[in-house]
Amino acid sequence: MGFRRHGFVVSGCAAGFLVVTVFVSDSLWLPQVSVLPMFRLTNPKDGLRIELEGASTRNKTLIIGVINEASVEDNGMLQLFLQSMREGEDTAFLIRHVLLVATDQIAYNHCMVLQLHCHQLYTDTLLLSPALSIQSTSLISLASTLTLFLGEVLLRGYSFIFTDMNVMWLRNPFARLNHNGEDMLLSGDLYDSGLYFVSSNTKTMALFKQSYAVMNESRSMKGDDVLHLMRSKRFIQQLDMKVGYLDTAHFTNFCQGTLDIAKAATVHANCCPSRKAKFADLTAILDVWKTYNNGTPNVTFSAHSSCAKSRKTHQLKTSLQAAAMGNKTLVISYLNKAYVEENGMLDLFLRSLKEGEDTAFLITHLFLITVDQTAFDRCKMHRLHCYRLVSEGLNFSEEQLFMSDGYIDLVWQKVVVLGEVLKHGYNFIFTDMDIMWLRNPFSRLSLSGEDLQISCDYYNGRPYDDSNHINTGFFYVASNNKTIKLFDMWFESRKTLKRMHDQDVLEFLKSNGVFKQLGVSVRFLDTLYFSGFCQVTKNSKEVITVHANCCRSIKAKVDDLTETLEAWKKLKGTTTVGWPQHRACSQSWRA
């Protein structure tokens, strides 16, 4: 292929060029595409020719990467990329075959100071900045411009490897590319678009020409879809292209999980939304690599923990945005495998919302914390807003009996996530899944500015009396500095009040004046409206929610709550009667 000692492609912006071919007509060749006025690929003296000649090998192959202002900062991605090449096995010489494409003046100037091969994409406006999201209009424009540039490189007879800057080159990859006349070599991992090779020929020129034309017309192409398109048999056959795939044992990425230091040629920091997290984890990769390369064989790559954390934060943020009402308020509950069985607690809870008074619309604002994969999959099947909570070393998939060790671990993980929700600026009602919503509770929540409104196992008739015995199965919290501090203290207190239920710890904080010390205003909810099996309401005309508290097993809760819903369906608040006796729950304590 080129370097005997050879090349790759794509990032979020570069990947876009391949996406668009699926929209093209049966003809592989489109009319000649002219460059739009806003783009000038080269300067008047055709500096691109000089740059390509300077960077390429004798057989006209080179490595191409894209840099911007963010990547060239101190402790930026370019620094790590070059470090990996300098410290890798038989990779240092490849630096002179890298052409860095700068999307802004600062990046170009920095590249020139480093005396590397540099090319600047000329545009009328600054297309890329550190703050741009992957779907921003400017980034889509950049993808289109870059596609035009890469097509020009192919048109001039140069093959190239494109590499993201967040790909570390630990070993010379070219001997592992196994190039046998393929037009393109892509990652063998469906979710990795950080590296690929493109050979200069009429087929790949047609690909880039078509891609640019459609991208320029649509103005909305997304680079994330590229790999699905490339793997389409129809797509490959239409272009009559020969496509090869790279071995993921050698061309590794963060989506894979475990990485083998003895085999890895490159490591791509994908599945990581934060630039800061990428830098931290790739730095750790290079530190371990350096130790290994200095003769310490029994070392392994550390888990990319910073990226894992940033991914969780990103997932939480996007899920909250999707679920929240206009005033940044939502309804939160949590699920495990035991709750999502057919005709189980989840189905019963959703049924109550569908059949309740003015409650059906709240399903669209329901945010479910799922603690195992089965629960997450079932949540997605219902097309709900689902967040997958992963806790190292903890298994919450089975039923957790009240006050068991597993139950206590589960509720504390819930408190952690709720605290994060507050820190993102969202208000919420938290509800246990074993609570039936018969009426819209927002109509009964106080609008007097309380920070916390919480249900009770037993209510003494005084809504602001701290002697009310709280129940953490249902509460409303407003996001502010006071409630954020309260949730932090709540979680930290588990260390001193060991093996206690989260409810008992919060009760302890209340009784010891912590609410008042923090200035948290609290209203205790009347069991006439927010009822439970501990203290059953006598008035079906007023009841809003019914909680299967004072009950030990899921089966007993399902049985008794099903009877409650059946009674509600018949009564619909037309008369003042009590609810059916919760016999199954009473008997659950004797089992």
Strand order in space, largest sheet: 4-3-2-6-9-8-10
Q: How far from one another are the termini?
A: 72 Å
List how many beta strands DSSP finds: 22
Low-pLDDT stretches? 4-40, 124-137, 223-227, 393-403
How large is the share of residues in beta strands? 15-25%
Q: Kindly state the mean pLDDT as a whole number? A: 83
Share of residues in helices: 25-40%
| Biggest sheet record | 7 strands, mixed
Q: Could you tell me the radius of gyration in angstroms?
A: 30 Å
What's the tally of helices?
18
Instruction: Tell me, briefly, the overall form.
Output: elongated
SS-derived structural category: alpha/beta
Structure description:
- The chain has 591 residues and is α/β, with parallel strands linked by helices.
- 35% of the residues lie in helices and 16% in strands.
- It contains 18 helices and 22 strands.
- The chain has a seven-stranded mixed β-sheet. A seven-stranded mixed β-sheet has the order 15-14-13-16-19-18-20. It has a three-stranded mixed β-sheet with strand order 7-12-11.
- Strand 14 (366-370), helix 12 (373-381) and strand 15 form a beta-alpha-beta unit.
- The protein starts with 15 loop residues before the first helix and ends with a helix.
- Residues 4-40, 124-137, 223-227 and 393-403 have low confidence and may be disordered.
